[in-house]
Write a structure and sequence with these properties.
The protein is mostly helical. It folds into two domains: 1-56, Homeodomain-like (Arc Repressor Mutant, subunit A, Orthogonal Bundle); 63-190, Tetracycline Repressor, domain 2 (Orthogonal Bundle). The protein has helices at residues 6-31, 38-45, 49-55, 59-78, 88-104, 106-116, 122-146, 152-172, 179-190. The longest helix has 26 residues, at 6-31. The radius of gyration is 19 Å and the shape is elongated. The relative contact order is 0.10. The mean pLDDT is 86.
């Protein structure tokens, strides 16, 4: 058998890192971030605790990586460019994609939501993600301003709260949630 190539080693490393992150997501959501341990993550990932430290310096670094990847994945799925203004068509697309991502993998999103609502995670989440979310918030504020809303910041927060609620209800009851009707209602109200 030929020795592995650098590309094969890189692929193995990425696969192992993904395995650790998925295990951590489950452990942090189930046992809480604060109540979990690296040993529990290692056990769930079926790797040694020492191996985890080859990939991550700390439990906090794993958490930050999870949150960052979650945000990046969401922004990529919605195809949001912070340099381009939101049009009505693009905003409709964002509404549809935001709802659809919850439908496509409700269990994974439930884990992320469970993690992000933990009191010891929320401050870290806000500290790390707010600068990254800010350009999208500015876009939404501009979108609602251009449409003549008297208080675009409140409208943006209201839209976000409605979307959070919709996603939460999809996660709680994915089979019975009236996805298409709710998307149309949101388009009618916000776009």
């Amino acid at each position: 058998m030929a020795p592995r190539s650098p590309k094969q080693f890189a692929e193995i490393r990425e696969e192992r890192k993904h395995q650790i992150l998925e295990a951590a997501l489950h452990v942090f959501a189930q046992d809480s971030y604060h109540g979990s341990s690296m040993a529990a993550v290692a056990n769930r990932a079926k790797v040694s605790k020492g191996l985890i430290y080859n990939y991550f310096k700390s439990k906090e670094e794993i958490l930050i990586t999870l949150i960052s990847e979650f945000f990046d994945e969401a922004m990529e799925l919605m195809d949001i460019d912070p340099e381009v203004s939101l049009t009505r068509e693009k905003f409709i697309y964002v509404i549809n994609r935001s709802v659809d991502v919850s439908v496509q993998n409700p269990q994974r999103w439930k884990l992320y939501m469970s993690l992000s609502f933990q009191p010891d995670v929320t401050p870290l989440l806000m500290e790390r993600m707010l600068p990254r979310i800010q350009p999208f918030m500015v876009q939404m504020n501009n979108y609602f301003t251009e449409r003549g809303h008297e208080d675009p910041i409140t409208m943006m927060r209201y839209y976000s709260a409605v979307m959070d609620g919709v996603q939460l209800h999809i996660m709680m009851d994915p089979e019975n949630f009236p996805v298409e009707k709710v998307k149309q209602m949101m388009i009618n109200q916000f776009a």
